[in-house]
Design brief:
- By secondary structure, the protein is of the alpha+beta class.
- Helices cover 58% and strands 10% of the residues.
- The chain is built from nine helices and eight strands.
- The strands form two sheets. It has a four-stranded mixed β-sheet, covered by helices on one side.
Length: 384
């Protein structure tokens, strides 16, 4: 049962009520006080104070101060008037209960409105902050764009200046080359004139027939100026016969020999089974196509068909570890445990040397072989 606090004191003016409530050694906090316009409650277990006020008050501006073992309330009246008493008198229990419930309901509605107002205010603040951030970012973006534009204009001016300088230099070089070429042509003409004059001077004193000597001079000059024709010949080039299109100096002989050996072995295998493979299509003679077909059969649960596809692929190419790995998975599903062990071991033989590229395949082979050994209860047989 609560202990009611009844030793309170109060006084009033036309606009306010002053209430002093002793705490009897209890420690109060604002959370212990509940107040609306007609209802005041202080709950500090085991103490309880409750008052249905005589008239409405302004609960928004009213205050409560906790200190020195009391709670001092300053309650501002909504209407300026003197109260006959602090609490409502001659009220029955139903009315008091109604007033309590109404006060609690109003408090909840007020708290809800305040929460909504806080939410709206928070959203407005968030919106304002977002707008301010966007404005700052816009200003910063424009500043950066202006800097970029200035740099672009600067670079453009420098580029145009450089192009103009290069054009001027090229023009100067072209003029210089033309001048040098002109000088060389003039010098060549001078040398030719000197040479012709030297050839003419000895013939002037001995020549009796001018026209004939000039003709002989012209023929001799032509013979002297024209070079002799080159002798014709044949060049024979021999190439080393090769299977590959690359030159021998650019090839790797060991790898080429290995590839040719594998191709020859694959052809022998296909030719040996040619009678059985005559009815197959070209796609069905491709080990990769058969592997994909087996994978699809395995995914649908048709493990026997998948094994048949892998068997044919192995007959066409028995050097692909993935064929043995996939067939081992099928044998595990079919409970052919010994065959699963054989295929896993064969895959491990082909996955040599162990390198990072075949690490995942080796892990699958070990797992499937170990699974088969465990199902056979041969726990000591599997070793890595």
């Amino acid at each position: 049962m609560p202990v009611w606090l009844r030793d309170y004191s109060w006084r009033q003016t036309d606009s306010a009520v002053y209430l002093s409530l002793p705490l009897r050694g209890a420690r109060a906090t604002p959370a212990n006080i509940f107040c609306t316009d007609r209802y005041l409650k202080v709950s500090i277990p085991p103490f309880l104070f409750e008052a249905v006020l005589y008239a409405p008050i302004d609960d928004t501006n009213s205050t409560a101060k906790i200190g020195n073992g009391i709670i001092f309330f300053t309650l501002y009246k909504k209407e300026i008037a003197m109260w006959d008493s602090l609490m409502m008198e001659n009220a029955n229990k139903e009315k008091l209960q109604y007033l309590r419930e109404s006060a609690v309901l109003k408090a909840h509605e007020k708290a809800k409105e305040e929460a909504e107002a806080k939410k709206v205010t928070k959203q407005e603040h968030k919106k304002y902050a977002l707008e301010a951030t966007m404005k700052l970012e816009e200003v910063e973006r424009k500043r950066i764009e202006n800097l970029k534009e200035q740099e672009r204009q600067k670079v453009t001016r420098e580029l145009e200046l450089w192009k103009k300088q290069q054009t001027d230099i090229a023009r100067q070089e072209r003029i210089q080359r033309e001048r040098e070429l002109h000088q060389e042509v003039e010098q060549l003409k001078e040398r030719q004139k000197l040479k012709i004059n030297k050839l003419r001077i000895p013939n002037e004193g001995t020549s009796t027939k001018g026209p004939r000597s000039d003709s002989m001079f012209s023929e001799n000059l032509k013979e002297e100026l024209l070079p002799a024709p080159r002798s014709a010949g044949t060049i024979k080039i021999n190439f080393t016969s090769r299977v590959f299109p690359t030159a021998l100096r650019e090839s790797r002989v060991a790898e080429e020999e290995e590839w040719l050996h594998k191709q020859a072995e694959a052809r022998r295998t296909i030719n040996a089974d040619l009678s059985e493979l005559e009815d197959l299509k070209e796609d069905e003679k491709n080990p990769d196509w058969l592997k994909d077909k087996g994978n699809k059969m395995f995914a649908t649960g048709n493990y026997l068909a998948a094994v048949n596809a892998y068997n044919l692929a192995v007959r066409l190419n028995n050097k692909l570890p993935v064929l043995y790995l996939n067939r081992a998975a099928c044998h595990l599903k079919l409970r052919n445990l010994h065959k699963a062990i054989e295929d896993s071991s064969k895959a491990l033989e082909l996955l040599t040397p162990p390198v990072p590229d075949n690490e995942n395949a080796r892990v699958k082979a070990y797992v499937r072989r170990g699974t088969a050994f465990c199902q056979l209860e041969l726990y000591a047989e599997e070793c890595f």
